[in-house]
Amino acid sequence: MLAYIIQRIGQSALVLLIVGLVAFSMFRFVGDPIDNMLGQERTQEDIDRLRGQLGLDQPFVMQYVKFLGGAVQGNFGVSYRQGRPVSEILLERAPATLELAAVSGFLAISIGIGLGVFTAIRRNGITANVIMSASLIGVSLPTFLIGILLIYLFSVELGWLPSFGRGETVKIGNWSTGFLTETGLKALILPSITLGLYQMTLIMRLVRSEMLEVLRQDYIRFARARGLRERAVNFRHALKNTLVPVITVTGLQLGSIIAFAIITETVFQWPGVGLLFINAIQFVDIPVMAAYLMLISVMFVGINLIVDLLYFAIDPRLRVDRTGGH
Amino acid sequence: MTPTLSIHNLTVDIPTRHGTLRPVQDVSYDIAQGEILGVVGESGAGKSMAGNAVIGLLNPPAHIASGEIHLNGTRIDHLQGDDMRRLRGKHIGMVFQDPLTSLNPLLKIGDQLTETMLAHLDISQSDARKRAIAALEEVGIPGAAQRVDSYPHQFSGGMRQRVVIALALCAEPSLIIADEPTTALDVSVQAQIIALLKRLCRDRGTAVMLITHDMGVIAEAADRVAVMYAGQLAELGPVRDVLTVPLHPYTDGLMGSTPLASRGKARLHQIPGAMPRLDTLPDGCAFHPRCPRAQADCTRNPGPTLADAQGRAACFHPLLREDVA
């Protein structure tokens, strides 16, 4: 077990290295940061000097190695645009994205599994069929369109909820949270629905089809034949078996919730890392882009690792058979 | 004495777009306390369907169209929902064919045992656990006190079927429906499982409906045998009589197609043709198109009943005793 975890962490580190390398090889095509940093009145001398200072005259592999050297010490360099350490900027922006992603993920998983189970158990009911049809909207509409539609309905027409920003936040140490104020909570509603809707419908449809499959299994029939209550059959026996394959997809989807927050954050002008990244691209702010990409990959890889470990927790067949024998 | 199970004129219907199918038609039999009734027939003869009807686990749209089922004198065929659920496990236990798929792979076998007992008996969690261990010991699981915390995949097929039997018996039902309990097992294990089932049921006076297509299992375990063909009872009687002097030509054909060591190298007999599909049942006796003894009047409706051959075989022209050497 421990050997397995160490092996997986090793693999994860390798993935991170490769992601970084690919990212750095791409930065050269985004644009030249020097153009934005120096004003109109610049000489070739200024350009060369700044380029040398920033190390941009070196090949991208060297730049990458330098970045890695700093990164392992927690130093991601200084933002070209803001002139402040990137780690400081990211820490400032991360709570907004993480809170948004957490709420979206929670909504997606809880409502997705709930509706999936419901539509599987009542597979011939009218309500279940209406939900299934409606879920096609969630799967097929692009995120930004859902965001704009929600803004139009709830902010412009009804005026119930704010259309942009985080509302008031409260600082707890370095973490600014929107959970503790009314405006903060209100501001969370539309963006988190926008961000989580696709994942929610995906999880729901997946849970439904897996559960229908499980309900056909012999051990479910046997559980019924033993006179267990319908609730115990559906939840204790069927749902647990349903979740094994669902966990993989859900884990990957949680990763993409954080990654795709970029679109939602742009639509709602949400002051998180996604919006920061978009702005960084416009300014070719390489340190910010690099740190953001690494942060996202760390999260993806981390979530995957957790998913793999969850398998062990939920499925005894994967654990090392210590009792053994027949 | 009231029989443990009494099935009276049971008919099961499956309505489809192309008309109603009748997988079980007008079937009647009793099983006394402690008796093992073997139900044999080819696949699709309706033997499992009748068992599912008794325990209330017919898959819709299949349903009981007519007839009555009595358990210990109480009518149970019309019970719905929670009333039927309370009956399952508590009064009727069931053993399925494949022990590899009958147990939930994610739950310890002890938990599956205790949840069954707690659903039916008014006992505490710790009592249930003690009884779970005792139940495993009874079905011959070595080291039951430790194995109670094992998962199904840590047992072999034969051991798993023992666990399944422990599960079916743990709330002490008066009837066990064993649907092909040995078909998925190694031959060497089959006899052990049959012996175990026989011993446990004899000790407790549990009635058993033993559904199988294996004549050897019937000969080994059953007291009486019911032969089913195309949803109907073909022959019903004590196992010795039916197996040695069958009255119905179908039973005779079945016996002839069973390999026996005593018969030496003689070619196995085949019954020509195949069982008719439920949507194209012939008139009269369902077996007559394949029957070597068929005569013109075999197509007359209504078809034969058990009363036509000494109350034992549903046949207009049963084999006479002297025919069967």
In round numbers, the mean pLDDT of chain B is: 86
Specify the CATH class of the domain at 89-272 in chain A: Mainly Alpha
- Strand adjacency order, main sheet of chain B: 6-7-8-3-9-10
Tell me how many strands of chain B there are: 10
What would you call the quaternary organization?
Answer: heterodimer
Q: H/E element string of chain A?
A: HHHHHHHEEHHHHHH
* Fraction of residues in helix of chain A: over 70%
Low-confidence stretches of chain B: none
**The named CATH superfamily of the domain at 89-272 in chain A:** MetI-like
Q: Report the C-alpha radius of gyration of chain B, rounded.
A: 21 Å
Biggest pleated-sheet summary of chain B: 6 strands, mixed
Corresponding CATH architecture of chain B: 3-Layer(aba) Sandwich
Observed structural traits:
heterodimer, A: 326 residues, mainly alpha, MetI-like fold, two-stranded antiparallel sheet, disordered C terminus, B: 325 residues, alpha/beta, Rossmann fold, four-stranded antiparallel β-sheet, globular
Describe this entry's structure for a reader.
- The complex is a heterodimer of chains A (326) and B (325).
- Chain A is mainly α and 326 residues long.
- Chain A has a domain at 89-272: Orthogonal Bundle (MetI-like fold), CATH 1.10.3720.
- Chain A has helices at 2-30, 33-37, 44-54, 60-71, 86-121, 126-140, 143-157, 182-215, 218-225, 230-259, 261-267, 273-283, 286-314, and strands at residues 170-172, 175-177.
- Chain A has a two-stranded antiparallel ribbon with strand order 1-2.
- The longest helix of chain A has 36 residues, at 86-121.
- Residues 321-326 of chain A have low confidence and may be disordered.
- By secondary structure, chain B is an alpha/beta fold.
- Chain B has a single domain (5-91, 173-323), classed as Rossmann fold (3-Layer(aba) Sandwich).
- Chain B is 31% helix and 21% strand.
- Chain B has 11 helices and 10 strands.
- Chain B has helices at residues 47-55, 81-87, 99-102, 109-120, 125-138, 144-147, 157-169, 187-204, 215-221, 239-244, 249-256; strands spanning 5-16, 19-31, 36-40, 63-71, 74-75, 92-95, 175-179, 207-211, 224-229, 232-238.
- In chain B, the strands form 2 sheets. Chain B has a 6-stranded mixed β-sheet with strand order 6-7-8-3-9-10, sandwiched between helices. Chain B has a 4-stranded antiparallel β-sheet with strand order 2-1-4-5.
- In chain B, helix 4 packs across helix 5 (125-138) and helix 7 packs parallel to helix 8 (187-204).
- The longest helix of chain B has 18 residues, at 187-204.
- The chains are: A mainly alpha (326), B alpha/beta (325).
- Chains A and B meet through helix 9 and helix 10 of A and helix 2, helix 4 and helix 7 of B.
